[in-house]
Amino acid sequence: MVPKLWNETIEEHRRAVREAVLETTAALVAEQGLRGVTMSRIAEESGIGRATLYKYFPDVETIMVAWHERQIAGHLAELSELRDRPGTPGERLEAVLERYALIQQQRHGHAGELSALMHSGDHVTHAEQHLRHFVRELLTEGVQTGEVRDDVSPEELAGYCLHALAGAASLPSRAAVRRLVAVTLAGLRPQG
Amino acid sequence: MVPKLWNETIEEHRRAVREAVLETTAALVAEQGLRGVTMSRIAEESGIGRATLYKYFPDVETIMVAWHERQIAGHLAELSELRDRPGTPGERLEAVLERYALIQQQRHGHAGELSALMHSGDHVTHAEQHLRHFVRELLTEGVQTGEVRDDVSPEELAGYCLHALAGAASLPSRAAVRRLVAVTLAGLRPQG
Question: Which residue ranges hold the DNA-binding region (chains A, B) (predicted)?
């Protein structure tokens, strides 16, 4: 039997290779745009043999999807942490949406080009559905406390939020992002 | 000297060829997605010789850009007509945004995939800037009549509107689109 430590080392090694490939690919896309990235360039830049690279990922697109999923998972963890802080649903919704909008702003540039491609393609990741679900749950809580309008379903309101805040990507400052969040939140409030 | 009628006939013929190429390309994209479309397929399907096609357009991307620009120009004409009807700026804004959202909804599918690619690429057309400018002007009028909030610039509010209403693309019904427009408009109103 292979000792446990040995297994853990292999597992760790695999994770490190995967990590290196994802980081290298993201960096190449950021530098050269989507078109400049090939399996050969990724192997070269990450210092992994081409044969090894193909054992991990069949093609560039699969790497990009994995990178994108990992990005979203990281952001979800960050947003979950904000959601679980003390406060009313409305306050926590505001914190989550502001953070989400700032993340969108950071995605600007070639990495944003990558995300846009992922979003516009047929490929809709589980993680994205998770994000939508996540916002919807917060909105449902907000409806219960009367902080969020109840004449439109939380599902539709979640779609509205995520689309409106996607506009943060092209905003020049954090102040502009905060104004966008304020306008978006105003749309969510119960109407007199 | 070439008679005037002859020139007009040539001009008309050119317009007809251009039109046929754009329509064929849009139809091919709608059927097969972006990847299935080549210059040879476009020539074949539109019944134009390959050599002639290349006299009009150097590549598929140029055709797609031309198609997209024509789409937007058509939509702008429709929106301008709504803007110029009688009513307060707020009422006309609502009519324009609702029409815009319904247009977004119709773009669903492969043609939407095409538009999404155009939007996410480096290529931002003059027509798109025109649309943004158009909405911004209406918002500015709305600020003057007190129907639109004045604590955020019309420029930023225009970005908010267009992004929020882009969400209409995935909505299943016209009723859902109207709810989205109502929520988006609520974000634009002066805040108490």
Answer: 38-57
